[in-house]
Design a protein that fits this description.
- The complex is a heterodimer of chains A (about 270) and B (about 475).
- Chain A has helices spanning about 1-20, 75-85, 90-105, 110-120, 145-150, 200-210, 265-270; strands at about 25-40, 45-55, 65-70, 155-160, 160-165, 165-170, 170-180, 185-195, 215-220, 225-230, 235-245, 245-255.
- Chain A is flat and about 80 Å long.
- In chain A, strands 4, 5, 6, 7, 8, 9, 10, 11 and 12 form a nine-stranded antiparallel sheet that branches.
- With about 270 residues, chain A is of the alpha+beta class.
- Chain A has seven helices and twelve strands.
- With about 475 residues, chain B is mostly helical.
- In chain B, a hairpin with a 5-residue loop joins β1 (about 340-350) and β2 (about 355-360).
- Chain B starts with a helix and ends with a helix.
- Classes of the chains: A alpha+beta (about 270), B mainly alpha (about 475).
- The interface of A and B includes residues 9, 19, 58 and 168 of A.
Chain lengths: ~270, ~475
């Protein structure tokens, strides 16, 4: 009875394993190509296609995003046409053009107010102010720095270190770097967080950096800003500064001995940041 | 019969609760106490607790008469209760392997290895039911643990393959020790076996712990209490398991170790019902289905007929049609481990977006293994009925087969393989956030459906066949 059970089980396994071995080179579908966006993240064009590739090469296929500076030209054209219609007194056409524009972007110059005015039966004045220069954006009170913008503080190359993949959250990002030799550091990490205001960023510099690295404290000028250096008195040292609404902290662990020795390493890293 | 059952329930519960306690406390205290100190001192604490409640029967006489048995039981105890847990503890970091992986590999797998070893050593005196029970219990436990969250961190031999393999190797050491304690310890008085095994574990435990022992202040403040709790759990398991093993056999006693995921899950269920700990990450339908399959697997193992009961008692029909269905179900069930089971899509990434779609096969899904378990249980039921048509012989396997088919439905979209080495690290690091995700959808595979249908058909035909055989036998008796 046991022999029958085991015989059937083994026979089935052999059958399935031989079939499985034929199909063992798994193929997966990946997306690759480019996506072009404007400086506000709106998609201008896409050239993305799907490929079937062997599983071990899948990680190499990504969709590359190209950021084109300036505004989507369709928006500027629609806005100009709307203003021309307002000058000509054709409020119906102006409303249509502004509606088409607002479908592409939630707000642009006076488009929203003009559109609202036309819907309310009013006659808004045309906007005679000059068009914004390419690449300029309207300042906002809420945090607008995107995760990808935070990445400028964690470059792909730092002398003496090999960058690891960045871990990016909504308003913060961390990137670890492995030392390649010739440094006192056993490990290095860069932490960046965006706050609502520069005052908040400064407050959190105290709470997140100065509080945990209070020993050997010193504030010096680096990259044209005030930079804090401190150690935990044990094995780690950090420098931190606030750049506008962004808090940047660079932390390193010493291989052995006094973490104060890490200051030169951290300053060298600082010089490679914006 | 009822009295015997009640007598066995207490050690069974003690063994299961003790094993659960050992896993939970060892996990919770791992960061606070060095591994060698935690495991070594807890063995000594377990021995002391054992000596408080149980006195060895005439130790001097025992040593003079059965010195060899005492030494071998102590060696077995050292392997089972000190060496194996220490080997496992050395492999574990805070989340490497994950809690779900560790729980599966250190409890259900160790129990399964011990059941299989006992079954193999029985040399043909046991039917195939325990093997079917083990497959059902393992598949159920995997389904349960893979439903703890979505996407689950349950991914065996994927993220930390060497550590996973070492946990299984530690399980082999545990099995070797347990078999020695079971075979040679049975020559000693019942309670003495547990005490000798614990003594055997305590000696190397304390010797190896000594170099890492902290000062008196640290010892009393943070180290001693975890060791006492762990020692109490270890004592509970050791006395429960040895008592149950003596009352039944190694095979059935070991099933208690496989039940640990059920008890850990029940802790989570109680927590959800009684306290406010925020939203539960558990996919309860999947977890309940996994628990159901695990339970029936354990019941099949626990109700394995003892040697005398499995004597041939065929009453006519050889259940050829049921055997054909069950055999075909088994073959298609195994084949379905390699046929498509799930469509997976992973997308995200912190820089340039990454998006990949692929198909997972049966052995990467909970449904694949549950279907195999259903097929195995139906075949075990038919083969058991061919030698003994009492319901107690084939009934548990038949029920397990149908239960596994039912359990596979809510678990049809559950993967056992969330981690893939070929997906870039920045995508997998952030699974479950708005930046990257893993989506898995169930596929309807005709081979798997056929295996499930054939298993259920085999059980139905078997039930009719047994009933028909009995009525024919009765008619023959009346005619005579």
């Amino acid at each position: 009875m046991r022999r029958t059970f085991i015989t059937i089980l083994l026979a089935a396994f052999l059958l399935a394993a031989s079939a499985g071995s034929v199909a063992c080179q798994r193929m997966v579908e990946v997306q690759t190509g480019t996506r072009t966006v404007d400086s506000q993240g709106r998609v201008l064009s896409e050239d993305i296609h799907t490929l079937k590739v062997p599983v071990d090469t899948a990680g190499a296929y990504r969709v590359q995003t190209i950021v084109q500076p300036g505004i989507d030209p369709r928006i500027e054209t629609l806005y100009s046409e709307a203003q021309a219609a307002l000058i000509a007194g054709d409020y119906q056409l102006a409303g249509d053009k502004l509606g088409a524009l607002l479908a592409l972007t939630p707000d642009y110059r006076q488009a929203t107010s003009q559109s609202d005015a036309i819907k309310a039966g009013k006659k808004p004045k045309p906007d005679n102010s000059p068009a914004p220069k390419p690449g300029t954006t309207t300042p906002s009170k809420t945090p607008t720095d995107t995760p990808s913008a935070l990445r400028k503080w964690m470059p792909d190359t730092l002398t003496g270190f090999t960058a690891q993949p960045a871990l990016v959250d909504a308003f913060s990002a961390t990137r670890y770097y492995k030392p390649t030799g010739g440094t006192e550091a056993k490990s290095l990490s860069v932490y960046v967080e965006q706050y609502r205001s520069s005052a908040e960023a400064k407050k959190w510099l105290g709470l997140k950096v100065k509080r945990y690295f209070p020993k050997n404290a010193d504030t010096f000028r680096g990259n044209n800003r005030n930079v804090y250096f401190g150690t935990d008195g044990d094995s780690s040292a950090a420098i931190g500064f606030a750049s506008g609404e962004v808090l940047v902290a660079i932390q390193a662990d010493v291989k052995s001995g006094d973490p104060k020795a890490l200051r030169s390493t951290l300053e060298a890293v600082l010089k490679q940041l914006p | 019969m009822t009295g015997r059952l009640t007598r066995l329930m207490v050690p069974a519960l003690a063994s299961a609760i003790g094993a659960t306690g050992v896993f939970v406390i060892a996990t919770a205290a791992a960061d606070a106490v060095p591994d060698r100190v935690l495991i070594g001192l807890s063995c000594a604490v377990a021995l002391l607790l054992g000596l408080i409640f149980e006195r060895p029967v005439a130790p001097r006489e025992l040593w003079q008469r059965q010195r060899e048995d005492v030494v071998w039981t102590a060696v077995g105890g050292a392997a089972m209760l000190w060496c194996a847990p220490l080997l496992a503890a050395l492999q574990r970091s805070s989340d490497a392997p994950s809690g779900a992986d560790s729980l599966f590999l250190m409890t259900t797998t160790w129990g399964a290895l011990l059941v299989l070893a006992s079954w193999g050593l029985a040399r043909g005196r046991r039917g195939p039911a325990p093997l079917a029970g083990v497959i059902a219990a393992l598949a159920g436990a995997a389904g349960l643990l893979a439903s703890w969250e979505y996407p689950s961190s349950f991914a065996l031999i994927a993220k930390f393959p060497m550590r996973d393999a070492m946990l299984v190797l530690a399980g082999a050491v545990f099995v070797a020790g347990a078999l020695v304690v079971s075979a040679i310890g049975s020559r000693l008085p019942l309670r003495t076996t547990a005490l000798v095994a614990l003594a055997g574990a305590s000696v190397p435990g304390v010797i190896f712990a000594l170099p890492q022992l902290p000062g008196v202040v640290e010892l009393t403040q943070g180290v001693l209490m975890p060791c006492i709790y762990l020692g109490a759990a270890l004592a509970l398991f050791t006395f429960g398991w040895t008592t149950l093993e003596r009352g039944t056999d190694t095979l059935r006693a070991s099933a208690t170790l496989m039940s640990v995921p059920l008890l850990v899950m029940s802790l989570a269920a109680v927590e959800q019902l009684t306290f406010e700990y925020g939203p539960s990450p558990v996919a309860w339908a999947g977890a309940a289905s996994g628990a159901m399959a695990l339970t029936v697997g354990l019941v099949v193992i626990a109700m394995t007929p003892v040697d005398a009961e499995s004597a041939e008692r065929s009453v006519g029909g050889r259940h050829a049609i049921a055997l054909a269905f069950a055999g075909a179900s088994m073959i298609t069930g195994v084949v379905s481990l390699f046929t498509p089971a799930l469509d997976a899509l992973s997308e995200g990434g912190t820089g340039e977006p990454f998006r990949v779609a692929w198909t997972m096969v049966g052995f990467e899904s909970a449904t694949g293994w549950l279907t195999l378990a259903a097929a195995g249980a139906s075949l075990a039921a038919v083969l058991s009925a061919r030698s003994n048509d009492r319901v107690s012989s084939w009934g548990p396997s038949a029920v397990a087969s149908v239960t596994c088919v039912i359990a596979s439905v809510p678990l049809r979209g559950t993967t056992l393989h969330t981690w893939n080495t070929w997906i870039p690290a920045d995508v997998q690091q952030t699974y479950g956030t708005e930046y990257s995700r893993l989506v898995v959808e169930a596929l309807v595979d005709p081979v798997r459906v056929a295996a499930a249908v054939l298993a259920v058909l085999a059980v139905i035909v078997l039930a009719f066949s047994v009933g028909f055989g009995r009525s024919r036998a009765r008619a023959l008796e009346e005619a005579v």
